[in-house]
């Protein structure tokens, strides 16, 4: 509930000066000092680090205290909850764990009481509250770079609002103009908040640092990518397509000349994937096995996808302690979408002699056949299904990371990378239509496929390109990057019967689900806490 979140924001103001995000220099000289910064601008950057950290770890309170009280703070962080809602609700993942709420996501049978919905709702609201509070104080104090830091806070707030409207549609709406205190915020509609996000990003565009200038902090390219993704989904959010606008901001990123595709696809998901050494990374949640520790982020993805038999974290990732949680794996339907993988076998069955699909010409394939490709029940052991080892705690060449830790990965989680600028532009060009635009879309897609194949053997022609190819290509490129649900919704395949996958709707072969599930419900506790909702949940709930 937003009221509760705002109270948390006040109670936890003492925590807003510290963070474990090392590159933001967030360790204060006086860790007992509260956010009432006085006239000292040196604490501004530290407080900004708190906003960044709120998306990836549970908190930075005394003895690792969580920002929001939960039975397991790591379990309900923003990025981890977002990943669950975006992945295990789709064909790309299913989780074997029996924790409350997991089974509902596996089968698209969730209710407003699902704890992951509540956690992400509260976490996004908390980050927005932190940003509002920071903007108020930083504008008052001033100091070197304060204008840019405020722009970064506005970007992070816009990012939180973007995920809020993507997942929930309507959302409590506050800015620095409302202040931070005990009040019931008004509820913004999806279209209203869409317009606000757009206005905010356009307003700060020229204040943020130049592309590639301040990783892992947000820069102009991060704002352009968020604008592009906003416009990519504009028809879903507002009913009005914005394909041409999506292309404009993809053009800005690509045309900046500051980014290039990593030669090795795996580098984007390895310990050496950060934007200082990886030319493809635009914006990411920074991880560090020494300084940013927790069972969150890429550590969560790696360990939850590992098991004691088929994908040992010790063997595949170099993590030797607290390994092999044996939860997440892909469904057989996703394997089928990796059509390039199957093609190497003449579209026949994958032979038992190649369980890691080593013969696949597409080098994006980090999958392993486990005990059986079919999953006998939604809660069946993680030994069933398709193992995924895309993220790793090792460097791309297999060597040990410089900041290696036996339990925690140092692999940043990508939010925006250059491949998505190419893929978003290709989709926008295709949907705009016309022979010249479709030819240009093919060129963008082939750039991605040439990196995947190492040559032109996987290139397509205009005759190969349609909407089904586009959504499948996005799956091949971005699986396990917390984008799949949003993509499937945009293509009309997340609900309904157009695309079925194992255990969708609770049926072994998949079943049609109601269109209202394209939006998650407002959590029940939040709905009842804020009278401005008037008891009205999203349609269908």
Keywords:
19 helices, Serine Threonine Protein Phosphatase 5, Tetratricopeptide repeat, single chain, mainly alpha, disordered N terminus, 541 residues, 8 strands
Map the helices and strands.
Elements: H1 2-11, H2 44-53, H3 78-87, E1 94-95, H4 102-106, H5 115-141, H6 146-167, E2 171-172, E3 187-188, H7 190-204, H8 220-232, H9 234-238, H10 243-255, E4 281-285, H11 297-304, H12 313-316, E5 328-329, H13 332-337, H14 339-343, E6 367-369, E7 386-388, E8 413-417, H15 418-432, H16 435-453, H17 467-478, H18 484-490, H19 524-529
Antiparallel strand pairs: 1-5, 2-3, 4-8, 6-7
Helix pairs in contact: 1-5, 2-5, 2-6, 3-5, 5-6, 6-7, 7-8, 8-10, 8-15, 10-15, 15-16, 15-17
Describe this structure in words.
The chain has a domain at 2-207: Serine Threonine Protein Phosphatase 5, Tetratricopeptide repeat, CATH 1.25.40.390. By secondary structure, the chain is mainly alpha-helical. It is globular and about 65 Å long. α8 (220-232) packs parallel to α15. The relative contact order is 0.13. Helices cover 39% and strands 4% of the residues.
Order of H and E elements: HHHEHHHEEHHHHEHHEHHEEEHHHHH
Helix and strand content put the structural class at mainly alpha
Helix content: 25-40%
Strand order of the largest sheet: 1-5
Query: Count the helices. How many?
Result: 19
